[in-house]
């Protein structure tokens, strides 16, 4: 197997909580991302799923170098990407791009579409000579399914789905290898979501892109993801292939998330068991001891409060067995919950 | 839904090559290029408030540029025999205490008032905006220190501050300082005392727009600070400052009059409305026209700019339309 494009190990991002106006004292840390590791292979899509506040967007920002990580490493094609500065960082920017969540705020309302999609070429003039830029911009608009004649229009003249296509064109301009999609469809109508997902899928096979696809809904990522990672309170609780996560979920949180995905067939819907989680996500500034999910878990026992479960391959019942076939999950009592999906 | 809409559009205007699509869209180019500023401009042209204030300002600007077109009499010729004469067919606004034609003086006084107003506004707004942009964008310690620095000026009462600055500037000067020198001093004084207001406006607008996702996207592309500030944040923060500028211009013309009235600003032989109002203070009852006409012009000018500011604010405010 070839080397992964991106190897992330023990990534941590804590935001200090300060008190006082003149003399700021740090009174604690919000553990937005607390020890996340994963690999991303070439041409692969890693779906990252979790509810609001679990740290998925912070993960995206740290990976895009918009925030400095507190600790941890990430190797991009074997080189430490957090150590890059100056020209190396510029080069990294060409290789990794981002598609943001809200197409209404991610495009500068005072600039034309041509300016927005052409900006990457202005920042990286070595990519395309000046006289070639307009053609490149029109080409990009064509690739994402917009009319290339519209380069003089302003963002407010487009619909939400079209705006997100403009955002994708901008991310694609520098021909990156990795695109971090930070909930790219959650602000769109359901009918438009599918179109944008299909576009992302087509672009992936055309340009050999790798995606980190962030969503709060397991249903959305299933379509596109090769592997899925489920996040809860800054940690990954279960990772696996699409089949492992959707057909054989082991962690209770994954099972709860899956049971909340709407099922169109009413007969299936009646037969399956719904799991309703009670309570809110605990504060990431003061996470529960041991297993972070135990405050909302129906399987929780005393052990869960004492010992933090690691992300390891487990047999039914939670016994750790590194040699066993399966996928890693972080639960002392990991077991399949057969009634969730089927 | 989107796709079918797009498909329909692309059927309507096929875009095979650049030239073709350019030519095809050329007649509708004006409509397509209209951005938010264009929308605001179209909106403005329909507002009576804007039309009235724009006409007034245009007339005032012409008066300031070519006073000779409107008044043939010399503003500094003194005919003591005619001192304090009431308005008449010969001199529409009457004569002042030294027998000077008030109409000629009011017309010639527009230039000084408008020059001071425009330049002090430019100085205050440019200085304030730049500092506000830097403070708002970088935040943290830079922002704190710049804001505290601005508060020093905000805390100073305007007239007191102007008295201190202007009397210090001119402490060693015997007699009359030159016209350009005094004008520059007045402009600089108003600019120095007024910049923190536009700084605050720009700072808060910059803080709002720096949190927008398009700034994040630009950072992810590797854009420099300068590029983000001037290409992304400035165009999206400039509207409130523009509104403030139009209103401030009227205020500053009034401030110039205040300083001249106090004997700190412009002085004779410069003709300005403030000087004329100041001259009239001893003759309020015997010759009220000496106060009436320059004050009327001052009020109309200030009002015109404030009205313009109002109209611009309404047009730029998306919630209004």
From TrEMBL, chain A:
Belongs to the ABC transporter superfamily. It holds the Pfam family oligo_HPY. Signal peptide: none annotated. It comes from Halosaccharopolyspora lacisalsi. GO terms for molecular function: ATP binding; ATP hydrolysis activity. The lineage of its organism: Bacteria, Bacillati, Actinomycetota, Actinomycetes, Pseudonocardiales. PROSITE patterns: ABC_TRANSPORTER_1, ABC_TRANSPORTER_2. Residues 6-258 form the ABC transporter domain. Coiled coil: none annotated. One of its GO terms (biological process) is peptide transport. Keywords: ATP-binding, Nucleotide-binding, Transport. PANTHER family: D,D-DIPEPTIDE TRANSPORT ATP-BINDING PROTEIN DDPF-RELATED (PTHR43776:SF7), TRANSPORT ATP-BINDING PROTEIN (PTHR43776). Gene3D superfamilies: P-loop containing nucleotide triphosphate hydrolases (3.40.50.300). This is Oligopeptide transport system ATP-binding protein.
TrEMBL record, chain B:
The keyword Transmembrane applies. The keyword 4Fe-4S does not apply. SUPFAM superfamilies: MetI-like (SSF161098). Residues 110-309 form the ABC transmembrane type-1 domain. GO terms for cellular component: plasma membrane. Its main location: membrane. Keywords: Cell membrane, Membrane, Transmembrane, Transmembrane helix, Transport. Residues 1-32 are annotated as: Disordered. The chain crosses the membrane at residues 49-70, 114-140, 152-173, 179-197, 233-253, 290-309. It is a multi-pass membrane protein. GO terms for biological process: transmembrane transport. It is found in: Cell membrane. InterPro entries: BP-dependent_transpt_permease (IPR050366), MetI-like (IPR000515), MetI-like_sf (IPR035906), OppC_N (IPR025966). Belongs to the binding-protein-dependent transport system permease family. PANTHER family: ABC TRANSPORTER PERMEASE PROTEIN (PTHR43386:SF6), OLIGOPEPTIDE TRANSPORT SYSTEM PERMEASE PROTEIN APPC (PTHR43386). This is Oligopeptide transport system permease protein. It comes from Halosaccharopolyspora lacisalsi. The lineage of its organism: Bacteria, Bacillati, Actinomycetota, Actinomycetes, Pseudonocardiales.
């Amino acid at each position: 197997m070839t080397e992964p494009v991106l190897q992330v190990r023990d990534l941590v991002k804590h935001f200090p909580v300060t008190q006082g106006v003149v003399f700021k004292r740090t009174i604690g840390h919000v553990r937005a991302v607390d020890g996340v590791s994963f690999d991303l292979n070439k041409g692969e899509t890693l779906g990252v799923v979790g509810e609001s506040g679990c740290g998925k967007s912070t993960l995206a920002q740290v990976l895009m170098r918009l925030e400095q990580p507190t600790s941890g490493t990430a190797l991009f094609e074997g080189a430490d990407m957090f150590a890059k500065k100056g020209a190396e960082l510029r080069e990294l920017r060409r290789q990794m791009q981002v598609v943001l969540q809200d197409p209404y705020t991610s495009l500068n309302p005072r600039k034309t579409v041509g300016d927005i999609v052409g900006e990457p070429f202005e920042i990286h003039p070595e990519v395309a000579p000046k006289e070639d830029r307009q053609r490149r911009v029109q080409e990009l608009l064509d690739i994402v399914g917009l009319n290339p004649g519209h380069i003089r229009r302003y963002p407010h003249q487009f619909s939400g789905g079209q705006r997100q296509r403009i955002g994708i064109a901008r991310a694609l301009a520098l021909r990156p290898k990795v695109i971090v999609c930070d909930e790219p469809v959650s602000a769109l109508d359901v009918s438009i979501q599918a179109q944008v997902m299909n576009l992302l899928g087509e672009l992936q096979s055309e340009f050999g892109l790798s995606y980190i696809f962030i969503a709060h809904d397991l249903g959305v990522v299933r379509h596109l993801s090769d592997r899925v990672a489920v996040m809860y309170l800054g940690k990954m609780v279960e990772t696996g292939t699409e089949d492992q996560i959707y057909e054989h979920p082991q962690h209770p949180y994954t099972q709860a998330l899956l049971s909340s995905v709407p099922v169109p067939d009413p007969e299936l819907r009646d037969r399956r068991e719904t799991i309703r989680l009670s309570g809110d996500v605990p504060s990431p500034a003061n996470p529960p001891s041991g297993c972070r999910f135990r405050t909302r878990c129906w399987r929780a026992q005393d052990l869960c409060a004492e010992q933090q479960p690691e992300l390891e391959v487990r047999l039914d019942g939670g016994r750790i067995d590194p040699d066993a076939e399966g996928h890693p999950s972080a639960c002392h009592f990991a077991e399949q919950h057969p009634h969730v999906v089927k | 839904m989107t796709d079918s809409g797009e498909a329909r559009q692309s059927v309507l205007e096929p875009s095979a090559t650049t030239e073709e699509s350019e030519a095809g869209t050329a007649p509708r180019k004006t409509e397509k290029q209209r951005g938010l500023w264009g929308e605001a401009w179209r909106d403005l042209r329909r507002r009576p408030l804007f039309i009235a204030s724009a006409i007034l300002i245009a007339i005032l600007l012409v008066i300031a540029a070519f006073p000779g077109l409107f008044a043939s009499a010399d503003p500094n010729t003194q005919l003591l025999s005619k001192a304090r004469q009431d308005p008449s067919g010969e001199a529409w606004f009457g004569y002042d205490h030294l027998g000077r034609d008030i109409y000629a003086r009011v017309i010639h006084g527009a230039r000084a008032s408008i020059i001071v107003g425009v330049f002090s506004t430019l100085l205050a707004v440019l200085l304030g905006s730049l500092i506000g942009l830097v403070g708002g964008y970088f935040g943290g310690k830079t922002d704190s220190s710049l804001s505290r620095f601005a508060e020093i000026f905000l805390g100073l009462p305007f007239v007191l501050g102007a008295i201190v600055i202007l009397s210090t500037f001119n402490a060693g000067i015997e007699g009359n300082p030159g016209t350009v020198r005094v004008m520059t001093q007045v402009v600089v004084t108003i600019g120095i005392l007024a910049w923190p207001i536009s700084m605050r406006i720009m700072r808060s607008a910059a803080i709002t727009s720096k949190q927008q996702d398009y700034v994040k996207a630009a950072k992810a592309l590797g854009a420099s600070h300068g590029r983000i500030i001037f290409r992304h944040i400035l165009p999206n923060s400039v509207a409130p400052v523009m509104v403030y500028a139009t209103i401030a211009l009227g205020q500053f013309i009034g401030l110039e009059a205040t300083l001249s009235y106090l004997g700190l600003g412009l002085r004779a032989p410069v003709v300005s409305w403030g000087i004329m109002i100041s001259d009239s203070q001893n003759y309020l009852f015997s010759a009220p026209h000496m106060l009436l006409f320059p004050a009327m012009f001052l009020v109309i000018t200030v009002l015109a700019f404030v009205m313009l500011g109002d109209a611009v604010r309404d047009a730029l405010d998306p919630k209004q339309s």
